[in-house]
Amino acid sequence: MWLVFSKEIRELLRDRKTLFFMIALPILIFPLIFGAMAYFTTQAFEKAESKVLKYAVVNPQNAAEISDELAASPQFEQIIIGDNDDYAQLIKNARVDFVVVMPDNYSSNVLSSGQLEITLYLNDAGLNLVYNRVNSIVQKYATQYQTAAFTTLGVSSKQQQALIKPIVLSQISTADQRESWGEKIGGMLPYLLFILCFQGAMFPATDIAAGEKERGTLETLLISPIDRTKIVLGKFLTIACAGVTTALITVVSMAVWGIVLSRGFAMQFVADFMSQIGILDFVLMFLMLIPLVAIFASILLSISIYARSFKEAQSYMGPLVIFVVIPVMVALLPGVELKGGWAWVPLTNVALAMKELVKGTMDYFQLIAIFGSTALIAVLLLSFCVYWFKQEKVLFR
Prior knowledge:
By secondary structure, the chain is mainly alpha-helical. It contains 18 helices and four strands.
């Protein structure tokens, strides 16, 4: 078994493509992709906030204060339009970004005019921040008119507050910062880890049996004095080793990049968040990935044994990614928690456990169910893989 394992590892280390997916992807490529996404998202918001918006006002004389403030603001550029122009078409043709229609009943005395309705036409499909900018001006005058009306009615400031909000529901969250952010971030973490482990195991698995068939070296291996069980175990260990290495590199990369971002770039939020996640949490994440990788390795090796060629193996393995993602999606559903029967569902329980570890709310007794169920599935699949490899009709179909 160890002879086959050492031979496969040597061949694996010669394959640059496999090494790229095992090492470069989790260390450099994925952090660069996520960093670039964060950078461009920030740039898009800054551009939307600083962009000078072109606008038109219909009936500006009805609300002179608001019209004058829009005209005086450096954030807006007024465009004169015709009475019969189609507002939607003007926005679609990018002649203006929005159109404001002032009501005929506009008055600073809301006691006589009643509620005022200013209509804002805009294309709200994209990121534009039009509503927020216009509303900040409108709300200033709405507050002034409201205060003037209360003064006319002789309502005290205390009564004003009670009239505006008769009942206030005060919210005090018992969750700390780690739990709040862990709920948002922790659910996405298994997506990255599961797919990286699967990809890390898939590339050597494709070549390790189907590739040998294609090159005609499998027959040579089979007539050697090594028992077939040891041959398949050696190949399984090679695939599992590749997947575990990818998992280890990914977890270490996450910890290192978290430290770099929190200290090197003085990001206080990341620093606070990372300081609350202990080494034990990262170790447990890695340990939970080991039986998971064994499941992946057993399935992928079984497929590789069945496939006639490298290309056929790839075509079978590609769609399996969806079966890796679905358990993670289930873990994100409302009401799905790491307790009861869910703690025994393979893959989903690991995804739930990772979220709980990031949140800092892990029930460590559930590790018995997590490791027990995933290890049992891995052993059953490996047993099938050994049986599969001994079938001549499968190997030489």
